[in-house]
Amino acid sequence: MIPFIKAHACGNDFLIVMEGEAMDHDWAELTRRLCERHTGIGADGVEFFRWTGPHSGRIRLHNADGSIAEISGNGTRCVAAWMADELGSQSGDVLEIATDAGVRLCRFEARHGHTFEVTSGMAVPAFEAKTLTISDELVVHGTAVSTGNPHFVIVVEDSRFEVDKRSWQSVGEEICAHSDFPKQTNVEFFRVVGPRGIEIRVFERGVGPTTSSGTGSLAAATAAIALGLAGSPLTVVAPGGAQIVAWEGPGTELKLTGPAALIARGEAW
User: Fold this and answer.
1) What is the mean pLDDT of residues 210-236?
2) Structure pTM?
3) Where exactly are the structural domains of the chain?
């Protein structure tokens, strides 16, 4: 039996599994089985966790398809919420979480029942303008952003998030697997809804369309602020809910604030 905790951040859901409980398993195969929505528990990914100190831990993330991802902002926040629950953390306590993209410091802000508000330091982003050509010779202008994992961010004009009358889902799927991204990329589409607000849609590498993404919110906010389309702090609204990104500009660290809810504990075969 594999003990697990299930949590979600704005609908982006993850399973937390202790490394020691999964040592006898192939993690990619185990992740695919556990994340399957109809025959498994269902999740966008599994965070394999081990404690490294009284207030610190190490996580390794596998996407729902079994592939390895460097980091998930929402997944990291879910782990921070569970750690805060386990430790009985108080407002202001800082939890240290090592990821494949580096160490992230997560400050526990508040608790409302089983929902935790967490602010995570998410490192300094790298970004540059990039143009892609996809099927039907459609040229897509965007911003390539690294927030510890790769993103391609596209500005759209309408509430359907279409690109040249093509759905964001089809464009996202094609860009995700574009030859310019040998390890694939996450794809975000955003539209400006106010001087400090954007709305996004997310096509996540290894998962597909998701209700939210922490690093995707960071990437879209980076592009919006760098392009002068919006200011910080910036509210990023996805179908699953809102997160707040604070960024003072190039060379400074991104900060991500949002909720994470613990859903269930259980065991799986």
Assistant:
1) 98
2) 0.96
3) 2-121+259-268, 126-253
